[in-house]
Structure formats: C-alpha cells, structure tokens
Design goal:
Blueprint: H1 3-25, H2 33-62, H3 67-91, H4 96-121
Length: 122
Amino acid sequence: MSAVQGKAVHATGGFLLMGGWAAFANGAHPMPAPLVAGLVQGALTAGITLFLKQVIERLFRRVSGPAQYLLPPLAAFSISLTLLTVAHSLAGTPAFWTTLSVPLMISTTYAVIYTVILKRHA
C-alpha cells in the first residue's frame, strides 16, 4: 500500500468511525441533526487525521527536553478542540460535548502515543 493509499484509508476510517459516533451521539434528536453532526464530524476527522501527524512531527523536531513530550499532544488537543468547537457550533450540533468527547479523547491519545514513539526512535 502506498503512502497516499494509507492516508486515504486512515481518513476514510476516521470519517466512518467518528462520523458514526457523532450520528449516534445525536440520535435522540430529530433529523437531520444526527446526519449533519455525523457528516461534520466525519469530514473534520478525515481532515484532522491527515494534518495532526505532520503537526506532531514538526513540533517534536523543533523542541527538546520535556517539551517534546508535552507540546505535540497539547497542540493536537488544542487544534482538535478549536476546529471541532467552531464547526459543531456553526452546525448547531445539539449533543455538543458528547459529540466532541470521543474524537478529542482519541486524537489526544493518538498524539501522546505517537509522541512517545517518536521520542523512543529519536
């Protein structure tokens, strides 16, 4: 599998999983709220998935010491929180914090794990 294909698989998987989560989290609300939340979250997750890895790698290379462990995950969390907050606010997502909780937890956990892997291979 090429790098482009791998990125497409990750972006598509993120779209389906996190978009599905958002639709589920908003399922108690009338349509089209679950559908809109799912599409917004899916699109954001696909984009963020492609972007965060690069942010983590670049930030990791530019700092040293304890900052290498702290700043990349903090940046990933901050970027994700900002983008998700703005997009779901604009979309009027009814189950706002429930919708954001799982994607934020997963993206931050990914950032922590990936940062530790980078540190071990440095």
